[in-house]
């Protein structure tokens, strides 16, 4: 589908939503908008698809109160802004939307905080079934990069560009665009995808030529990965049939980074089918690695311990593997970073650790 068609489709769905409000007015009804309740208690783990999804409970934004009327007014103004933006084929950031509202002629339509405008964009995503990327709304730069044997074509406002993610980029790699669906995969020589939590470890792998030696597409997660990063990872898996592995630090917060790639997050439960890659495998620092390799460590904090205990109750981690690793970590009361592997030499991670782990998992 062309960019023009994508814009027209997104516009039509937004206009349909605004038309519903008008029809409710015309029919003598109090305008309202119903969306899934976005609370932790209304998030369910779908065991069939292995992702987080919203439950059946709904919340209603209704104009039967001053507060509700203001929310719907803000929604109408935002829909108007978004449809004009699509008409002009332009884009803006979530931060810019917050400031742009200050120029709207109705004071009641202006946002008091960016959290309020961010939440409204999420509401519109859910009810219109159009992603914010298709609204041409961008977050601030995530800085996530890709390095590996992949040739792609990216649609840009300066025309289509073909880029090889090794030959046509520097050591920094190819920067993932806000909307990875503007990318077309043309060719690749990759055997698997390796998602890496930290920039320092990504740089180590690139400097050591890991992407070339093992035909790997290295995706820098940059901590908790942005939606664009997770979407690209899912597309690499589904469209190129590439196994996905996730290489993180050895602590409960990094396990959640893996979980967001594999199973989705509570915040974006309405997009789990779009963003999550349930087949992704964890290849990060394991508690048993801390013991076996005698890695440098830090003690677990109370919040670390509480997070691990919480993960034992999380359906995403209720497997023999995760229960064994988490219970071991609670027992040794230690955590360790990816870079701790350097205690065995700068090449240890690429010459020994990753090849052995990948071989044991049947990836190489």
From TrEMBL:
EC number(s) recorded for this UniProt protein: 5.6.2.2
Positions annotated to bind Mg(2+): 197, 249
Isomerase in keyword set: yes
All residue ranges annotated as the Topoisomerase 6 subunit A/Spo11 TOPRIM domain in the record: 192-358
Keywords: ATP-binding, DNA-binding, Isomerase, Magnesium, Metal-binding, Nucleotide-binding, Topoisomerase
Signal peptide: none
Domain Spo11/DNA topoisomerase VI subunit A N-terminal: from-to ranges: 70-136
DNA-binding found in the keyword field: yes
Pfam family membership, one: TOP6A-Spo11_Toprim
Domain Type II DNA topoisomerase VI subunit A all-beta: 140-189
Cofactor list: Mg(2+)
Alphabetized Gene3D superfamilies for the sequence: 3.40.1360.10, Winged helix-like DNA-binding domain superfamily/Winged helix DNA-binding domain (1.10.10.10)
InterPro entries referenced in this protein's UniProt entry, alphabetically: Spo11/TopoVI_A, Spo11/TopoVI_A_N, Spo11/TopoVI_A_sf, Topo_VI_alpha, TopoVI_A, TOPRIM_Topo6A/Spo11, WH-like_DNA-bd_sf
Biological process annotations from GO: DNA replication; DNA topological change
Catalytic activity: ATP-dependent breakage, passage and rejoining of double-stranded DNA
Top enzyme category: isomerase
Molecular function in Gene Ontology: ATP binding; DNA binding; DNA topoisomerase type II (double strand cut, ATP-hydrolyzing) activity; magnesium ion binding
One GO cellular component, as annotated: chromosome
Active site, per annotation: 99 (o-(5'-phospho-dna)-tyrosine intermediate)
Protein origin, superkingdom: Archaea
Assembly behavior: Homodimer. Heterotetramer of two Top6A and two Top6B chains.
Function in brief: Relaxes both positive and negative superturns and exhibits a strong decatenase activity.
Family (UniProt): Belongs to the TOP6A family.
Name assigned to this protein: Type 2 DNA topoisomerase 6 subunit A
Species assigned in the record: Haladaptatus paucihalophilus DX253
Name of the coding gene: top6A
């Amino acid at each position: 589908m062309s960019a023009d068609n994508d814009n027209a489709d997104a516009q039509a769905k937004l206009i349909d939503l605004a038309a519903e409000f008008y029809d409710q007015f015309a029919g003598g009804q109090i305008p309202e908008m119903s969306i899934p309740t976005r609370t932790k208690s209304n998030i369910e783990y779908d065991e069939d698809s292995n992702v987080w999804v919203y439950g059946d409970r709904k919340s209603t934004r209704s104009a039967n109160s001053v507060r509700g009327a203001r929310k719907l007014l803000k929604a109408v103004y935002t829909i108007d802004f978004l449809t004009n933006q699509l008409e002009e084929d332009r884009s803006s950031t979530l931060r810019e939307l917050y400031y742009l509202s200050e120029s709207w002629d109705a004071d009641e339509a202006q946002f008091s905080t960016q959290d309020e405008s961010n939440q409204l964009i999420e509401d519109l995503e859910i009810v219109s079934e159009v992603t914010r990327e298709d609204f041409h709304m961008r977050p601030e730069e995530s800085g996530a990069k890709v390095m590996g044997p992949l040739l792609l074509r990216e649609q840009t406002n300066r025309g289509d560009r073909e880029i090889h993610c090794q030959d046509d980029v520097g050591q920094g790699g190819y920067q993932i665009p806000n909307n990875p669906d503007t990318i077309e995969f043309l060719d690749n020589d990759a055997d698997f995808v390796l998602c890496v939590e930290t920039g320092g470890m990504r740089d180590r792998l690139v400097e050591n030529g890991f992407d070339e030696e093992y035909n790997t597409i290295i995706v820098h997660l940059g901590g908790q990965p942005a939606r664009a990063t997770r979407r690209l990872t899912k597309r690499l898996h589904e469209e190129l049939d590439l196994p996905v592995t996730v290489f993180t630090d050895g602590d409960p917060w990094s396990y959640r980074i893996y979980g967001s790639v594999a199973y989705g997050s509570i915040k974006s439960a309405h997009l789990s089918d779009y963003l999550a890659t349930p087949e992704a495998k964890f290849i990060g620092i394991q508690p048993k690695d801390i013991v076996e390799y005698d890695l440098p460590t830090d003690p677990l904090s109370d919040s670390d311990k509480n997070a691990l205990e919480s993960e034992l109750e999380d359906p995403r981690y209720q497997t023999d593997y995760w229960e064994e690793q988490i219970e071991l970590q609670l027992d040794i009361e230690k955590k360790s970073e990816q870079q701790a592997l350097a205690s065995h030499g700068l090449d240890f991670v690429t010459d020994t650790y990753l090849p052995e782990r990948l071989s044991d998992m049947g990836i190489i």
